[in-house]
Amino acid sequence: MKFETENIEFKLQITDEIYKEVIAFANTDGGTIYIGIDDNGNVVGIDNVDETYTRITNGIRDAIQPDVTMFIKYTLQDNKVVKITVGEGSYKPYYLKSKGLKPSGVYIRQGASSTQASPEQIRRMIKESDGDVFEDMRSMEQSLSFHAAEKMFKKYNVEFSEEKYRVLGITDDSNSLYTNLALLLSDQCLHTTKVAVFGNDSNTEFRDSKEFTGSIFEQLEDSFGYLMLCNKTVSTFKGLERVESSDYPQEAIREALLNAIVHRDYSFSGSIIINVNDNEMEFISIGGLLPGLSPDDIRSGISQPRNKKLAEVFHRLHLIESYGTGIRRIYNFYSNCAVQPRIEVTANTFKIVLPNMNSNNAKETMTATAAITPQMQIVLDFIEENGQITDSEVQELLEIKNTRAYTLMKQMEKEGLIVIVGRGSSKKYMKKD
Question: Which residues of the chain have a pLDDT value below 70?
């Protein structure tokens, strides 16, 4: 032995630097550390072999995470030198427990030196060990708190405790490290939601903008609250009756926002973008459709969630019903509107656009377009065959609830397609002569 190499390191005596060398070898291609040899390769030896050996084995076990001891072999040479053979680890990156999973705690071997790993190198090691599913990977940030998550789980009467972390996917298989899913749910979430309100259709004249941070639960509630402030109500009169209608169905906003949060690609650092102008509200999330899916598939209710565990968390909280229903529900809310929502997809983005039902564009389109929707036609065909239809028959025929049936029949009356005869339990609808 004459000099140090990529795979050989000399140490005159034991110090805490030993742990960095072990980590560097385990994170790279493995190597050997000799304690009792100086930097020039001269054997000096160690004074107290037993004490040194015990200190080394205990220190490596306690100072390094994950457990690297299975990749280490100790040998005593001539009762003077401790040889530590370190194999390449299978659960990289290994790091100093006192520093955490960040550059100051992660080391790799470069030439004959052990140096701090860059954030990109750490992410690459995590990806190689944990696989390519972002939410399952170990988070580089391990100092996390979950105040917003605890509040949300409590609100929906779902248990949220450390005992449930592994089941939810918040911790890794060893139940000792937080995953990227935990980071998303935590108060330290790095991703944001940005909402901008514009004064023109080309979205170039700003009226207002907000950026919502914190746990994605907090972003969900704050951004939804702000969007509802942007959702104006228009009042009209039909005779003596005052009729109020919102620019956007509240449930459609909710479903579009949930879709953007649950299905975006969080491996990219950009924000969810929501743009609002007088004619439409658009939700833009990072990440196009998964391979094999088309916009028509999405509109039909076919879904392949990108973030399965995140979707499961939202499902547990009853924030989403089941995969694929959100988009269908959005279109159902617009079933009586001549201007329909749009889905636009690129390689890296998914956009859903909600039309403003009270905008001039929508009214002009409504005037120029036949207002008879498929649901209306089914009702008209039933009346043509039976002479009339009741509220309960509408609900059963279209498989819709009472509120939706009421809205549909009021719209058909407004369009002059039917007349209402009677009231209360004797109310029925007939075709207008």
Answer: 1-2, 235-243, 322-324, 360-371, 433
CA atoms within 13 A on the CB side of 351: 16
Q: Indicate whether 203 and 334 sit together in one domain.
A: yes
pLDDT at residue number 7: 92
Question: Based on C-alpha coordinates, what's the Rg of the chain?
Answer: 31
Same domain, residue pair 251 and 378 = no
Q: What is the domain-level CATH number for residue 380?
A: 1.10.10.10
Q: Which domain holds residue 149?
A: 134-185
**Would you say residue 2 lies in a domain?**
no
* Whether residues 381 and 357 fall in one domain: no
Strands 349-355 and 241-246: unpaired
How many of the other CB atoms lie within 10 Å of CB of 393? Answer: 17
Q: Which of 2, 96, 86, 80 is nearest to 40 (CA)?
A: 2
Query: 342 and 227: one domain?
Result: yes
Whole-number Å distance between alpha carbons of 199 and 240: 34
Do 108 and 144 belong together in one domain? no
Which of these three, 364, 389, 409, is where a domain ends? 364
Could you tell me if 70 and 64 are in contact, meaning their C-beta atoms sit under 8 angstroms apart?
Answer: no
Report the distance separating Cα 308 and Cα 355, nearest Å.
Answer: 29
Listed residue (58, 61, 59) closest to 71, CA to CA: 61
Percent share of the chain, pLDDT over 70: 94
- Residue identified by tokens 């000799």 is 34
**Three-class SS of 281-350:** EEEEEECCCCCCCCHHHHHCCCCCCCCHHHHHHHHHCCCCCCCCHHHHHHHHHCCCCCCCCEEEECCCEE
Tokens of 285: 């999330």
The alpha carbon torsion through 358, 360, 363, 367 (nearest 10 deg) reads 170
Tell me if residue 270 falls in helix, strand or coil.
coil
What is the C-alpha to C-alpha distance for residues 305 and 345, in angstroms, rounded to an integer?
Answer: 16
Helices in 71-215 by DSSP H: which ranges? Answer: 119-130, 147-155, 165-168, 180-185
Whether residue 129 contacts residue 92, with contact meaning beta carbons closer than 8 Å, is answered with yes
